[in-house]
């Protein structure tokens, strides 16, 4: 499931409104998604400052470029699977975004293709995985590349990210 987030004031309840409309009034106080997206949006703008420094451009360069940006929050749910070797939770891909901030639960399943092999990214509830997406590649004059990644499933446990 994914939904669009914008820091603009008049769209601040967009997801909650959607839930109430589709699922009823009991979802009226379900503002947690908005509460999550706002700090994530701030965090991503902070990360753009680090990227600016690393690329030797003005620190505010990307912050200004992405100001009033929109983002998408995706909620991934991977059921357990009796034959995990026959499938993948998410097929190998590069995110089309500029930046992705990923939080995975304690189950594990994210893999990144690096040095010609798939490597598992250890789950840690206390950390975010920050991925460069396809859109940032040209913005950095190809100095940053997006990473090919996928998510595997397992036999015993559901996974959320
Ligand atoms: O679930 C994951 O760890 C990866 C999800 C993913 O790649 C995506 O949503 O783009
Ligand atoms: Fe992805």
What does this structure look like?
- This protein has 161 residues and is α+β, with helices and mostly antiparallel strands.
- The chain is built from four helices and ten strands.
- Strands 4-9-6-7 form a four-stranded antiparallel sheet, with no helix packed on it. Strands 1-2 form a two-stranded antiparallel sheet.
- The longest helix is centred in the first third of the chain and has 24 residues, at 32-55.
- It is flat.
- Bound molecules: 2-oxoglutaric acid and fe (ii) ion.
- 2-oxoglutaric acid binds at residues 74, 76, 90, 95, 102, 104, 109-110, 149, 151, 161.
- Fe (ii) ion is lined by residues 93, 95, 149.
The largest beta-sheet arranges its strands as 4-9-6-7
Strand content: 15-25%
Work out the helicity level. 25-40%
Shape: flat
* N-to-C series of helices and strands: EHHHEEEEEEEHEE
Radius of gyration: 17 Å
Catalogue the unreliable spans. Answer: none
Q: Major sheet, described briefly?
A: 4 strands, antiparallel
Number of strands: 10
Annotation field: number of helices = 4
What class, by secondary structure content?
alpha+beta
Bound molecules: 2-oxoglutaric acid, fe (ii) ion
Overall pLDDT:
89
Distance between the termini: 11 Å
Pfam family, one: 2OG-FeII_Oxy
Organism: Hibiscus trionum
Domain Fe2OG dioxygenase: 68-161
Protein name: Gibberellin 20 oxidase 2
